[in-house]
């Protein structure tokens, strides 16, 4: 195996070129070391807030991709933690770098058979667009290592809404990836996972700051993500709803606060209403009202034991070599391409022609 990456020892971990040909660039502040391990993987709180939208909710527009990861044994022991950042110069997503064949995770698993569980914490859900093919690379990695389980947590869905030209591909790829359950789980970041991220991957945060309240805007965004990923994949995600729902007085106070402020910074153009069921449209919550809940420290979930399934998962080979389509030209597939000849039939003179024929017949009889 000839690795694509180059790894160098740093003060608090290692720094990695995901592709050996990368070099320092003025167009990308993270080049060439997009993968960092150990304590080198920590990011400033301001960067975490901007990219992951914590504690207030998603921040728009969002152009950066950042993925934290943990490699664990079957017993849950941590082998390595790190992060991967997107490359703005080469337009490469973190998941594409990590799961590249002969890439970093491929080499790590090849050298250490004890790695049985990979956990990703990303600001965006993985996509399968033609320039990235993140989900296809994940899928191929899991086929190559069937004894490895993958848990994916995200803070917002990426290009799954209908207005994005590649949304159908992304939704179908997410369904195909989710069909590998229980080897794969797709869930929104929620509850104590936020505090675990602050503790493990954010620098300059300690003590009470780690366990700061999850504000209403963030909690509603997490609930919305859980609803949407369930709707897309048909698989119920792991999700902790921290919005108060047990005490009637808390519900009344929360509802009154939620109806006081616009929600357009979290979901532009949409408003949601919190009920006992799923989020509904037309709500205006307060993004800065802290959620009152009993904090339960995050416990590592037991490793998922993969067993043979009688149902063969859908293969997504169709995503591996997607055509380089020009997305602006595919916004409305129902319209004919420009320049296509269109046949027009004029029928306005049909009645007049019939009358003339009748008059000629009458004259002939005379």
- Can you list the strand order of the major beta sheet? 1-2-3-6-5-7-8-9
**Rg value:** 27 Å
Average pLDDT over all residues: 76
Unreliably modeled segments: 246-353
- Helicity range of the residues? 25-40%
Number of strands: 12
- Strand portion: 5-15%
H and E order: EEEEHEEHHEHEHEHEHHEEH
What can be said about the biggest beta sheet? 8 strands, mixed
Tally of alpha and pi helices: 9
Distance between the terminal alpha carbons, to the nearest Å? 100 Å
Shape: globular
The secondary-structure class comes to alpha/beta
Describe this structure in words.
This is CMP/dCMP-type deaminase domain-containing protein. Residues 61-177 form the CMP/dCMP-type deaminase domain. Its cofactor is Zn(2+). By secondary structure, the chain is α/β, with parallel strands linked by helices. Helix content is 27%, strand content 14%. The protein contains nine helices and twelve strands. The strands form three sheets. The chain has an eight-stranded mixed beta sheet with strand order 1-2-3-6-5-7-8-9. It has a two-stranded parallel ribbon with strand order 4-10. A hairpin with a 4-residue loop joins strand 1 (6-9) and strand 2. The longest helix is centred in the middle third of the chain and has 18 residues, at 216-233. Mean pLDDT is 76; it is low at 246-353.
Index terms:
366 residues, alpha/beta, 8-stranded mixed β-sheet, two-stranded parallel ribbon, 9 helices, 14% strand
